[in-house]
Amino acid sequence: MRYTPLVYSLLTATLAVSALPEKQRPLQNNLGPAMPPPPSDSPSTSDPSGGDTVILSDVLGNDRSINIFAGFTRDFATISQRFEDSALNTTILAPVNSAIMGLPRKPWEDPKDYDELGANAYEGGDGEERAQRNLRRFVEQHCVAASPWKEGEKLKTLAGDEIWWESKDGVKMIQPGKIEVSSVASRVHNGEVWILKGVRNYA
């Protein structure tokens, strides 16, 4: 059986459940006027004058549209620790769930592995290690070790690739690849979470 990380299956199931309509609840007339929820793209911010400092690890899991990618990041201690470190700034480029689910191959699959090792490339202990290595590279391709990140500024991802972003007609695009940024979900003390409509090249 080909290697499939448990988190991918669990998050896929979670995504399916979260898409189900909620049951209607009777109105209660002792709660006062209803208040609309905040916009989904309104950024979370740290409050310098307040008590605790909000950091990336506090907000990455808040948006259900990127919970698959958020789950992947938790598989790797060094990445999770970076998001928890208020002294290390990061811009997280989180693809939406639908972009990950629509990939022609899983984030931990590499065509080179199949070319060299065949269909059983991810079988057994060695195969699992290979898949974890590939998945880590996928996550690192979507993290830039800086924030704030200025337009046109060429920076390296945690995987070592050089990327930048540009704005056209008010839309942010990650280059190379012309990947559209749908929103900046969070701005916190040690970085930002950008939601991408697509996935960076991860081969």
Automatic annotation (TrEMBL):
<protein>
    <recommendedName>
        <fullName>FAS1 domain-containing protein</fullName>
    </recommendedName>
</protein>
<dbReference type="InterPro" id="IPR036378">
    <property type="entry name" value="FAS1_dom_sf"/>
</dbReference>
<dbReference type="InterPro" id="IPR000782">
    <property type="entry name" value="FAS1_domain"/>
</dbReference>
<feature type="domain" description="FAS1">
    <location>
        <begin position="53"/>
        <end position="200"/>
    </location>
</feature>
<keyword id="KW-0732">Signal</keyword>
<dbReference type="InterPro" id="IPR040200">
    <property type="entry name" value="Mug57-like"/>
</dbReference>
<feature type="signal peptide">
    <location>
        <begin position="1"/>
        <end position="19"/>
    </location>
</feature>
<feature type="region of interest" description="Disordered">
    <location>
        <begin position="26"/>
        <end position="54"/>
    </location>
</feature>
<feature type="compositionally biased region" description="Low complexity">
    <location>
        <begin position="42"/>
        <end position="53"/>
    </location>
</feature>
